[in-house]
Every structure is written in C-alpha cells, then in structure tokens.
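Before surveying the methods themselves, it helps to consider a single example record, giving the amino acid sequence and backbone structure tokens:
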Amino acid sequence: MDADQTPAPIPVFTSEIDEARETAIMAGAMAGLMLGELRKNVSALLKTAQCIRRNADAWPRNITFVLSAVDEIRDLMLCRQYHAPDLRPAAVSDTPSPPTFAEVVKAPPEPAETRPQQPSKPRHQPTAARRDAAKPSRRALPSTRLIVDLSGCHPTKKPHPASLCNALNDALGGRLAVSAVSTTRSGNLILHASAPACSAQALAAHRSLVWSTISPPLGITDPAEPPMYPADPWHKVVFHRVPLMQPGALPSDRDFIREVAKRNQLPGTQYRIGNVRFLLERDKAPREEVTVRVDFIEQEDARRFLRDGIFLFGSHCRATRYKPRSSNGRQTSGGHG
C-alpha cells in the first residue's frame, strides 16, 4: 500500500445484528481458506494410502490403522459448511406456554361436574278405592248369620225358636239347613246357617221362601219382604245436609230407603242397606236439614256414594266416611241395631 493513499474508513455498525452478520461472513471466509488447504493435504494423504494399499502384503500390521485414518479423513472432508446463527427475533408462537405454579395456585377451582337428576315422579295420594282394594279381606269364611230386619213389620206373635227352625228346614227341603234362630235386642231375627254346607248368603238367595215360611208364625200379614243381610261388617257412610220435607219431621227408615232407591237408581235397596241412623245434635231446635249415617252391606255401594255423592229429597248431598265420635258429642235416633 502506498503512503499517499489514505486507508478506507472503517464502517460503523449501527446495531448488534449487523456486527454479528459481518463476523459470521469473515469467519466463513477463513473457514473456506482452511478447507482448501485441508483438501490439498487430504489428496496427498489419499495418494499415500493408495500406495500403501498396493503394498498391503508387505505391511499387514499397519493396514488396519491406515484404513481407519482414511475413513476419519473422509468424514472431515464431508462435514457440513458453517452457517451463521440466525439472530432475528423469534416469532411469537400461537401455542400458549404452560402456566406457572403461581398461576395455578391463584386460579379458582373448576366446578365439579354435576350429574343431571331425573325428575322424580309425583306421589299420588291413594284414593279410598285404592286403599280398600289394597287391604286384604278380613273375613276368610262366609258369614253364617242372616239378619231378618223386622223393625217395620211389627210381629204380633213370638213362636218358639225350635218351631221356626223346623219350619225353615222343611221348606228348604234339605238343600240348605238352619241350625238355630235367635232374636236381637231390637227385635230382629238371626238365622244361623248350618256350616259349612250352608251360609248366610245362600239363605239370602231364597229370601222369598224364607219370608213366606216365618211370617205366618210371627203373625205378620204384610207380604212385603223385609231387609235380609248377612251379619258382616257394614260400610258406613255419612250424608250431610239432607233436607227434610217438614222441619223436625224425620222420615221412617223404610221411607228413607225408598227415597235412596228412587233418586239414585239403586234396585233392591232394601237388601243393600243394613242400617239407617239420623245423627242429631242435642239441645237443638227442629232443623230443616239433618245428617244421616247409612250402613251399606256391599262395599261397592259405599264407594259409589263416597265418590259421587247422593240425591235425596231433591238435593245433592255430600258423602264422607263415618268416624265414630264420643257419646257426648252426638246422639243417634232410629236404626235396626
């Protein structure tokens, strides 16, 4: 270089990236020069190795060492070229980084998974019909006592029980038999069927024959058959606000039973009602409406009126189940008990 020539100004790098790039370029140039010299030396070494291989029989001990040296030199010649590192800022990745321990502690707990609950079925209150149907029958055997209601007949004679029993057995002709005849405190007859061949229900099926046999000895001339029913537990129903034709004038039991049959289309009512009682409050003036308790022989009749009510003397009356009360609360009037 001449003394008159001024050296070129050294460029000033304005950033670290440009400086690093320049350094990488210079290092690459130096590596290229060194690689050229290395290739020359390797070429000479390969020629020497070829000569050694030709004379391998003369140097059997050194051949393995030389061949391994050749392989190492070949690997050096095939090495990758040097590349400068990429100093550009890394692009922001879309994949979120895992949370730190502090972030996990501060995060609120996830709500527990709740299972969908199935809606519960509404509970239905059992009706009276269902309760009665679910209860087993208390009476395992049929009744053996048939009650003949004589409250409306007014018998004038009182025959011996043996004569009535013999007359009934002769009339039945051996098909059925009666073991005894007794009388209740209210004057009704009880026919005791001969079990197990006979029952109260079987005698009631021949009520016309039974009545035509016992009415003459009792001195009864009325041909109308009185109520006859087995001595089974009755199904008691209370009817509220029953109107009276005249204030304070209670109808007879027979008239009341006829009213039930007429207004409610209940044929054979005299055989389906066992008792009628008018429930009257003490120390009360004559009323235009009363409460009546009716004892039904058949459970189906009681269920019907509990469900639908009853028609009496031109009015519709509400019906409920009978619940006995103390004698101080009410007094009863009438009945066949």
Notes: The longest strand covers residues 235-243. Residues 16-77 form one domain. Residues 331-337 have pLDDT under 50 and may be disordered. The first helix runs from residue 16 to 54.
